[in-house]
Amino acid sequence: MAEELKDKVYEYLSNHYYLNLATVSPQGRPMAHTMAYVSEGTVVYMVTDKNTRKVQNIMQNPYVAYTVDEDDPDWFEMQALQIEGKASIVTDENELREIGEILVAKFPIAADMPPDPDSIMIKIEPEVVYYLDYSIKFGYREQVNL
């Protein structure tokens, strides 16, 4: 069952486009950010401007959380992921190149975008993953151990 659940998490991440990232400001205020992402297993990557509030928040406190979910009005069909993890800025050129290829495969429009010297790649490595599936039972949530 554990492997089946891990596979559901991998598939869910690879079949969705946006996540809702939660960071905490240096003043202790929670902030939410909608982000396009790509994934490799349970690790997610996002490109953003290096001067954004989310980057400033991550530099002060790398612990983040995010959700990936459906926009479905039927509560009893809801499926989602809740993930807590640690964010970092990707600086390794090989990793940037590999993830760039994954990004263009998922978002072909990215291939037409000119390079931006202010863009950076954020990497989130999960520490706790919850898989929600209300079609099993309203409120059903299972922790995935990686």
From TrEMBL:
Alphabetized UniProt keyword annotations: Oxidoreductase
GO cellular component, one term: cytosol
GO MF annotations, alphabetized: coenzyme F420 binding; oxidoreductase activity, acting on the CH-CH group of donors
Pfam family of the protein (one): PNPOx_N
Domain Pyridoxamine 5'-phosphate oxidase N-terminal residues, every copy: 5-132
PANTHER family reported for this sequence: HEME OXYGENASE HI_0854-RELATED
Protein name in the entry: Heme iron utilization protein
Organism of origin: Methanosarcina barkeri 3
